[in-house]
Design brief:
Blueprint (H helix, E strand, L loop, with lengths): L9 H8 L7 H36 L4 H5 L1 H42 L5 H30 L14 H23 L2 E3 L9 E3 L6 H8 L18 H17 L1
Helix pairs in contact: 1-4, 2-4, 2-5, 4-5, 5-6
Length: about 250
C-alpha cells in the first residue's frame, strides 16, 4: 500500500529505480525479501565452507604424522580448500547481484510507491545484506591466508565484522608488499610455518650477518676488570706488601 504521508516522486522513480520503475509495491516487496533471504542463505553456505576447512585441521590430529606430512596428502588438502574457496567466491558474486537488485527494488518502494517506512528497509539492507556480503568476502580472505601459508591474524577474519575484514586486507597487503620488497632485494621470506622466520638468499642459505643482526646485540659489552695491575700476579703483590710493612717497622 502506498504511504499516506509520503508523495510519489516520478522523476526520482525513473532515475533511481530504472528497469524496476513499473513494478507494483507487492512485486517490489516480493523481489526484495526473496533476494534478502537468498543472500543470508549464501552467507550460510560460505560459513559451511569455512567450517569444513577448519575441520580438516581437527581430523589431522587423528592421522599419523607421516601421512599428514606427505606431499600427496598436502596436495589433497590444498585442492579441497581451493574448492571451498571457489564455492565461497561463487556465493560472493551471486550475493553482489542480489544486493544490487535489492537496492533497485528499494528505490521502487521509496520513490515509485512512496512508502513511509522505507528507512526500516534500508536499515535491514545495510546491516544484514551488506554485512553478509562483507562476511562472505572475509571467508575468501581467510582461505587466501591459509592457502598462501601466511601467518593468520590474531583477530577473526572469516565471517567477521567489516572492520575486522578490512583490517585483514591490510594484513594481506602488508605481507604482499614485504614479499615483493624482499624479492626485489634478491631475498625471499621463509614460509610462516617455519619457526625460525629467517631471511634466506635465493640458494636457501642464511647469511651469518643477518643472524647476528637478528639475534645478537651489536652494543659493546663491558666486562668488569681489575684496575690494579698487581692483581694479575698475586706473589708480587704479597712481596710488595711485606716490603711496605718492613719499611713501616724500620721507621
Amino acid at each position: 500500500m502506498t504511504g499516506k504521508f509520503t508523495e510519489k516522486d516520478t522523476q526520482r522513480c525513473a532515475h533511481y529505480a530504472r528497469f524496476m520503475k513499473h513494478l507494483s509495491l507487492t512485486q517490489a516487496n516480493t523481489i526484495f525479501w526473496t533476494l534478502f533471504v537468498l543472500t543470508l542463505a549464501l552467507m550460510c553456505v560460505s560459513s559451511i565452507q569455512h567450517h569444513k576447512s577448519i575441520r580438516i585441521n581437527d581430523l589431522e590430529k587423528n592421522l599419523p604424522a607421516e601421512e599428514v606430512a606427505s606431499p600427496k596428502y598436502r596436495r589433497k588438502v590444498v585442492d579441497q580448500r581451493r574448492f571451498y574457496l571457489g564455492v565461497a567466491g561463487f556465493c560472493f558474486l551471486l550475493a553482489i547481484v542480489c544486493v544490487v537488485m535489492e537496492c533497485f527494488a528499494l528505490f521502487n518502494i521509496q520513490y515509485c510507491d512512496g512508502e513511509d517506512l522505507t528507512q526500516l528497509y534500508w536499515g535491514f539492507w545495510s546491516i544484514l545484506q551488506v554485512g553478509s556480503l562483507i562476511a562472505i568476502f572475509g571467508v575468501m580472505v581467510q582461505f587466501w591466508i591459509v592457502l598462501q601459508n601466511v601467518e593468520t591474524p590474531s583477530w577473526a577474519v572469516a565471517l567477521g565484522t567489516p572492520v575486522l575484514v578490512f583490517a585483514a586486507l591490510g594484513w594481506v597487503f602488508k605481507h604482499t608488499f614485504t614479499n615483493n620488497w624482499k624479492r626485489w632485494r634478491g631475498k625471499e621470506i621463509v614460509d610462516s610455518d617455519d619457526s625460525s622466520g629467517e631471511e634466506t638468499d635465493r640458494e636457501g642459505n642464511t647469511s651469518d650477518e643477518e643472524k647476528v643482526g637478528r639475534w645478537v646485540s651489536r652494543a659493546p659489552t663491558l666486562v668488569p676488570g681489575n684496575t690494579n695491575p698487581d692483581n694479575d700476579n698475586p706473589e708480587a703483590s704479597n712481596d710488595s706488601k711485606r716490603e711496605g710493612l718492613k719499611r713501616t717497622l724500620t721507621l
